[in-house]
Amino acid sequence: MKNFFEAIASFFSSLFGKKKASAPTPQPQPTTSPNDRKPDELEDSSDVPVDTVSTVMVIEVIPDAPGPFADDDKEHAVDGEETPTTPTSPNTGGGTTTPTTPTTPTTPTTPTTPTTPTTPAHTPRFVWCLDNGHGKLQPGKRSPVFDDGKTQFFEYEFNRDVVEKIIKELKKNGVKYFDVVPDFNDVGSFLEERVDRANKFKTDLPKIYVSVHSNAGPAASASDWIADSINGTETWYASNSTKGKKLAAVFQKYLILKTGFKNRNLKSTAEKPLYVLEKTTMPAILTENGFYNNKTQVKELMKDSVRQKIADAHVAAIMEIEEKGIV
Fold first, then answer.
1. What's the predicted TM-score (pTM) here?
2. How far apart are CA 79 and CA 238, in angstroms?
């Protein structure tokens, strides 16, 4: 009987066969990466359609407070003091007992001026990619014409002047920098190229991107001045960059201390996605130094002494970060 059932089972098995397990259906691969998003990118905060001074994060500026960086990168100190030489012992007499004729005393020599210890040379920690926002060929980005019918402020010229003043001081201090757009007269917005130049710049040191601008508030038209209450300085950073936020805080601190401008505090790309902050591959900030369509403030921005203060504020921030580093 057992053989009968085995025969029946063998018959049906040969007739129908075993079903093969079906292969798993391949899952579609994602076609885009999380970094492929294309936000509504803007060039600087003057492209933000409304004045947002009342909604920004408040950062208290304390002149004597330490910077927001941890001093975990230890500098190798260079001893600039000269090692004092051991004074030689005076010569003692010796020889025969016969007294010798005393020699005429020599005229004492004039003591030499002590050598001043040299200051140790600065050891660069970063390369500062300096971007003077906008170019001569870019439309807009200028003040209304003044009452004389000819005087006008051009942001590209202001930005370049400030960056040149910064570069001059960095050279004196031995700080490494990269001039992103030296050809500002021959370019317009030039956004992609600015970012591309900085991203591709080869260096053994870490890079930091600083874009220098002047602001513009919302006005009825390009020929209208904004309300005098809209003024001051602010610093922008990428919202996903902790280092960028710390950098922005240092720059904003010195901009307020050096210029006395109203503190508009820090702003981030969470508010508006500024292109150079979104697309650079290094910590980046963008400073907005006064409002060029504020008739009162733009007169200050046209003074060389005020521009020097703005440049000095940037240099002071750079030197603090060079000294203390960034986490």
1. 0.68
2. 39
- Mean pLDDT for all residues in the chain: 77
195 close to 284: Cβ distance less than 8 angstroms: no
pLDDT of 54 higher than 50: no
For residues 254 and 317, what is the distance between their CA atoms, to the nearest angstrom?
6
- Between CA 302 and CA 321 the distance in angstroms is 29
Spatial strand order of the sheet with 176-179 comes to 176-179, 127-132, 207-215, 284-291, 233-237, 263-268
Q: Is residue 246 part of a domain?
A: yes
CA–CA separation, 274 and 277 (whole Å): 6
For residue 269, what are the domain limits? Answer: 127-284+291-324
> Is residue 26, in this structure, part of any structural domain at all?
no
- What total number of domains does the chain contain? 1
CA distances from 181 to 47, 161, 191 (A): 21, 12, 10
CATH of the domain at 173: 3.40.630.40
Per the domain annotation, does 200 fall within a domain? yes
Dig out the tokens for 69 from the structure. 């960086």
**104 located within any domain:** no
Count of residues making up the chain: 327
